[in-house]
Amino acid sequence: MKYIVFVRERWIQGYEVEAESKEEAKALIAAGEGDAIEGDFEYDESEDPETWRVIDAPKEKPNETSGKANSRQAQGLPDAKGIASSR
C-alpha cells in the first residue's frame, strides 16, 4: 500500500525592512511589514515524526493529459488550506 506523508518542516526566510532598531525590525516583520528577499530561503529542520500527517495514496494516477493532472485535487490530495487546518 502507498501513503503520502506530510512532513512538517521549518524554513528560514530573509526579509528586508526599514526600522530604527533590530527590535522594531522584528516587530514590523511580525506585523506583516517588509519584503521577502528572493532567493534567501533555506531549510532549517523537520519537526518530530509524531507531528506528521499520513493519508492513503490515491489508488489510480490521474490522467497525465488532463489539465488538472498535477493539481492537488486531481491527485486526491487535500488543498493547502486543508493541510494547515489539520495541524
Please supply descriptive tags for the structure shown above:
87 residues, two-stranded antiparallel ribbon, two-stranded antiparallel sheet, 17% helix
Explain what this protein looks like in three dimensions.
The chain has 87 residues and is α+β, with helices and mostly antiparallel strands. The protein is 17% helix and 32% strand. It contains two helices and four strands. Strands 1-4 form a two-stranded antiparallel sheet. The longest helix is centred in the first third of the chain and has 9 residues, at 22-30. The chain is elongated, with a radius of gyration of 18 Å. The two termini are 24 Å apart.
Strand percentage: 25-35%
Helix fraction bin: 10-25%
Based on DSSP secondary structure assignment, what is the total number of beta strands? 4
What order do the SSEs take from the amino end to the carboxyl end, as H and E? EEHEEH
Class based on secondary structure composition and strand pairing: alpha+beta
Helices and strands, with pairings:
Elements (H helix, E strand, L loop, with lengths): L2 E4 L2 E8 L5 H9 L4 E12 L6 E4 L23 H6 L2
Antiparallel strand pairs: 1-4, 2-3
Would you summarize the structure shown here?
By secondary structure, the protein is an alpha+beta fold.
